[in-house]
Amino acid sequence: MIHVSNLSKQYNKVSVLNIENLDIPKGQSFGLVGNNGAGKTTFFNLMLDLISPTTGFITSNNIQVNTSEDWKPFTSSFIDESFLIGYLTAEEYFYFIGDLRGRTKADIDTFLHQFDEVFNDEILGKRKYLRDLSKGNQKKTGIVAALIGNPDVIILDEPFANLDPTTQIRLKKLLNDLTKDSQKTVLISSHDLGHVTDVCDRIVVLEKGEVVKDLHTSAETLKELESFFAV
Amino acid sequence: MISRFLSLEWKQFKRSASFDKKIAIKILMGFVVLYFATAAIALGAGVYFIIKESAPQADPLVLINNFLIYYFLIDLAIRFFMQQLPFMNVKPLMLLPVKKNIIINYLLGKSMLSFFNFIPLFIFIPFSIVLLIKDYAVLNVLVWFLGVILLILSNNFVNFIINKNTKIFYILTTFLIILIGLEYFNIFKLSTYTGIALNAFYKNPLFIVGPILIFVSCYLANFRLLKKGLYLEDLDTKKAKTVNAADLSWLNRFGKMAPFLKNDIKLIWRNVRPRQVMLMSFVFLFYGLIFYTNPTYQKMPAFLAFASMFVTGGFLMTFGQQVPSWDSEYYKLMMSQNIPYKLYLEAKWYLMVVGVVIAFVLSTPYIYFGWRIYSMIVAGAFFNIGLNGFINLYGGALNTTPIKLNVKAKAFQNTNKFNPTLLLIALPKVFLPMLIFYIPYKFISFEAGTFALGLIGISGLFFKDFFIRSIEKTYQKRKYKTIAAYCETT
Fold it and tell me: Domain with A152 in it: what CATH number?
């Protein structure tokens, strides 16, 4: 599904990301871990063509993301709050994303219904603008919006950060379901080793922009990761 | 401490992404300032003789004093729209052991160094020198000068208060409108009383106490206002407001563009900055009054063409030239969601067209000035729809200044109400309609000029797809730059 080839990104000749070769097959849940500055967000930004690669390219479903826009219809993402439109209410925001993805208001309403528990009566029907919601509720809104329209590729940067424990557990279940019963490819990054191992089939560790570990999740993975990061 | 603040600001300026551009702008702005300063000096030095010539019996100083109130009012109005409030990134300082009083005094002191406070110096220093040469009493002239400057500095602070407090703004505007009305209909002449007051402190220097008191109380009022506002909750503007939702489903007839149009209407409706811009665009409607009533311009109809374009183009220009910037807060979403640029641009263009149409309807009273003028407004509207809209969208594509949507002009936030880059992009917009009008006008007739303006405007519509595609290309070329610039937060 996603193919990375000779990808590198440099800022002022300082390399922040350098991935020679990486393939993410369809339906995989792919986890990216690494310390601050390891290049996780840079990689996601490159995947979304928000920054330009210094060398190499990424293809998604055989579409090179920095030359064509055709990956947009089947890709959705939530990286940070700048993916939210602050002056809309949560409903309006969901409808807007729905409009962009060819979903009617009614579709969205049924879709949102399954998240009632996640929203915990704090997001929908509150007549509040997104900019006035708490960080955690903003995150919930962004993540749910990224699921609208049945996208094939879902990219979530740090989805567990800022979420309350209950929602973290729910989100894990949700992500597991997504990759289990459909052909969706999910890419997430996290600082929480426990969460990624719970959710992802495969975990790649980045260090200073390079892939240093590429693991298929097994019972030992968490231990291995913990010992890797313990210095 | 003050020197540290200054070095912080210097770093902020030097390290911003648009630094290169900014320095070019600064140099250009330097020339503009130089021009204004020269003009002010000339005015200050010359006004005495001008008055002497036209009214030989009158004492120029008395006459000036009588009119000074209008100067102050105009000064205040210009400041209200143009002057930047003193800004400093104050949040990081709040956790550090820096006394609030120091920050506030620094901010207020810095605001006194504004361009708007220097221009009066350029006018009143030469004027005072002329007075001295003409044997006015030295002490009295100096005190008078000091009083005027103190009043102008008070204006500086009054402006901040009305900028920050809408209630005071409305009260003051109503009050002023009433006074101006009374003055106009000769019921109550404020200017005579202010004239008497100003003349009084020329005659008796002790009256200088008045301006000093006004100045000090304005300063203190600001000080208190800022001190009260120096808390996180005020800085964040996170006061939750309940939503005013309107049913915009009638826009669905625009098909794929509908979601964008709906969003843009909410954008304008729910955010402070776009609302300000929309109100500003109403002011443009009155632009014609200046030009159509002034006999000088009747002989220079190219200026009339320019004014006619302005009458209907207010919203188009003020909104259009900042087009991707309005979406800067969530630009990454727009760039990664399922949004083709073409649709995005087209939606913005339609919105601008609606703006022109509304302004055009509102401009109907200009028929009063005759069909010639009105036909020019019609032609101007066509020019706006057919060409100017695209020029503005193109200019916007080059503009990478992010906009904080819901930030009122507040003392602690960066609100560039007046952006010189935009001014530079605006120049061709101003001269193109004049040129289009002028050539046929010169060689054929006034009507031919009007016709050419309208015709070229309409013909622009046939190239709509071409224009949109070219702008789209600019967007694509500058995409990463724009995203990076919008991420920069101050």
Answer: 3.40.50.300
